[in-house]
Design brief:
By secondary structure, this protein is α+β, with helices and mostly antiparallel strands. Helix content is 28%, strand content 19%. The longest helix has 15 residues. The chain starts with a strand and ends in a 6-residue tail after the last strand.
């Protein structure tokens, strides 16, 4: 489908042959798109562009688990920030694509984006973030949560182990879910708080486990429970993993 918008063409990409076109706008996950298409976490009909001639003005794309018929997340909404104000183009692009990609009447998938931690202090980053948020706010969306994403670099070394703590493997799924249930008491996590408004802590923990942890393909032997000393009481857990 192609829609003309003041000489702008809005359409889905034709397939992997147009990834180079789609990636003309920079973003941190561009290098993943080829594999996502090959593994069917994305589909060409979920990846749309707004072009004027051969120039890419804006793009939008959804992501889903391999084999799913509907997308799980909106994770790309980009605009050529070096050009003129393209807010109207981005708005038309999103609304046109959403009508074709999303199930009518269903709650749209969440939008997630990696942005600089100091985006409020950087005028260019602030303008870019506000444009994208504004497009979705115009459709009724609202900010759910803002998180800091931390990264460990090997050159930083590792801290000296705390002698109070010991780590052991997770016994079984029930043990981990029981610990997850306990951590929901007083949680500040936005998604967990939303779940707790509709279900019990145990039900929320089961949902989190089944929809996230159970889908990880990395070894469960990596998962650890932290205890106060050897054979002591659990004080927390860590789930090193690779998600989809």
């Amino acid at each position: 489908m192609s829609t003309s918008h003041d000489t702008v063409t809005i359409r889905p990409i034709t397939g992997p042959d147009e990834i180079a076109l789609f990636n003309r706008l920079p973003y941190t996950i561009n290098h993943e798109l080829d594999d996502d298409l090959a593994d069917k976490r994305r589909r060409p009909e979920w990846m749309w562009v707004a072009v004027r001639g051969d120039r890419l003005l804006a793009r939008v794309a959804w992501w889903g688990r391999s084999g799913d018929d509907t997308p799980l997340l909106l994770d790309i909404l980009d605009v050529d920030d070096t050009a003129e104000d393209l807010t109207e183009v981005a708005q038309a692009l999103y609304e046109t694509a959403a009508k074709q990609v999303l199930v009518p009447g269903a709650v749209p998938p969440e939008y997630g984006r990696f942005i600089p931690a100091d985006w409020r202090e950087d005028p260019d980053a602030y303008r870019a973030v506000r444009l994208r948020m504004g497009v979705l706010e115009n459709t009724g969306a609202h900010l759910t949560v803002e998180r800091l994403r931390l990264e460990w670099n090997p050159t930083a070394g590792v801290p000296t182990p705390d002698r109070r703590l010991a780590f052991r493997p997770v016994g079984d799924t029930d043990e981990l879910i029981a610990l997850m249930t306990r951590t929901l008491d007083g949680t500040l996590d936005a998604h967990s708080r939303g779940d707790l408004a509709q279900m019990s802590p145990h039900e929320a923990a089961v949902k989190h486990y089944e929809q996230e942890f159970a889908t990880y393909s990395s070894p469960r032997e990596w998962w650890r429970i932290g205890t106060l000393g050897e054979d002591g009481e659990p004080v927390g857990f860590v789930v090193p993993a690779r998600n989809a």
